[in-house]
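If your schedule permits, I should be very grateful for your opinion on a structural question. I have a record of one protein: its chain in single-letter code and its fold written as discrete structure tokens. Kindly check, if you would, that the fold set down in the tokens agrees with what the sequence suggests. I remain grateful for any guidance, and I place the record below:

***
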Amino acid sequence: MIKEFKEFSTDAILRIGNEELLSTYSVSKNVELFTFIWAKDSTAFIEVDGISVTLEQHKIIVLTPNQYFKFIEGYNLIVYQFNREFYCIKDHDKEVSCHGVLFYGNSIIPIIELDSENQKKLDFLHQVFLDELETVDNIQAEMLRMLMARFIITTTRLIKQQSHFENIYNDQVDLIREFNVLVEYHFRKEHSVAFYAEKLFKSPKTLSNSFSKFIKSPLQIIHDRIILEAKRLLIYTDKSAKEIAYEVGFDDASHLSRMFKKHTSLSPSEFKKQLKPETVGKY
């Protein structure tokens, strides 16, 4: 089952469906759309950026457009997909925008746990979504955007309750999220904490202190993003190590090679030879 809304004046797309909507991802490829996958009645098996993920029943995983995704198995799933033109052109509170907590506020893949009460809430919301997709009139687009905002608000509240965010002052969370967004946009060219600190009107020391309650420092997050992109390019393209180094901002391939080996214990060429998906335990 796949239902789709298109707004030709803005190129907005919203798709709602089940596992059929994921059938085009039988081979790992760029997901291209903001995506929620809800394992409603059974466990689902997927792969994100070469990492095998077991999505247990009553959990929702959130994917951003730049990630590589492969659907392996799952039944009775609920899937929402939309593009930037559908939701991100609207003015939203920063926590629930396309640069919010769910999409670029975490250094790990967000997975949301649903208790019975929130399952009922989202079940009801899903039915309203489906009904609204059948109601074609001049306010349909606005209604669908309002419903998506409600869905994102609900899941954002849940991920905050289930993570360490609740133990940190809000201004720190906002700063960290803004930092993550900047890294996403600039990591291919800018590798220094000083660059991001200046963009945020902070000193490098102040920025680093804001991460004191997190496991990773700002520099580690920058390096992690570079390594993740290098892994994606090694796995999914035929580009050479030199080409990849240039693409992530290094004039000398040896600089990337040293960073890559420090993070993975392998050189880029050794990693390329393996080409075996990493496996993680259940989230």
In short: Confidence is low (pLDDT under 50) at residues 277-283. The domain at 170-279 is CATH 1.10.10.60 (Arc Repressor Mutant, subunit A). The first strand starts at residue 2 and ends at 7. The radius of gyration is 20 Å.
